[in-house]
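Below is a filled-in request sheet from our internal design queue. Each sheet records the structural input a requester submitted and the sequence that came back. We keep these sheets so that new team members can see what a complete request looks like end to end.

REQUESTER: design group, bay 2
PRIORITY: normal
MODE: inverse folding
CHAIN LENGTH: 92
BACKBONE (tokenized):
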């Protein structure tokens, strides 16, 4: 015999939040690099840009995690079942 569904939890639907994270990262990156010159030295700036991208992704991820913990209702969620073991499955 299998486990029975005992109820459901509302959990964040992470695949649906991917676009939000991407947009937030791009906005942070755009704001942080807005004053960079249009023409730059490729050798020096490629490293700087890589660091800025990593920092923007890290910052956006932290903000999204904090918002989810404080205001989960503003993000997409899904119902995930939780199971309860049958009496037959529990060892005595």
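RETURNED SEQUENCE:
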């Amino acid at each position: 015999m299998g486990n029975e569904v005992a109820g459901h939890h509302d959990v964040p639907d992470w695949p649906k939040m991917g676009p939000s994270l991407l947009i937030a990262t791009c906005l942070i990156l755009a704001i942080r690099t807005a004053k960079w010159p249009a023409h730059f030295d490729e050798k020096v700036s490629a490293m700087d840009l890589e660091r800025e991208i990593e920092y923007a992704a890290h910052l956006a991820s932290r903000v999204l995690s904090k918002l989810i913990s404080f205001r989960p209702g503003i993000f997409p969620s899904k119902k995930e079942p939780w199971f309860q073991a049958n009496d037959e499955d529990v060892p005595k």
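SHEET NOTES:
- The longest strand covers residues 4-12.
- The beta strands are 4-12, 77-84.
FILED BY: M.R.
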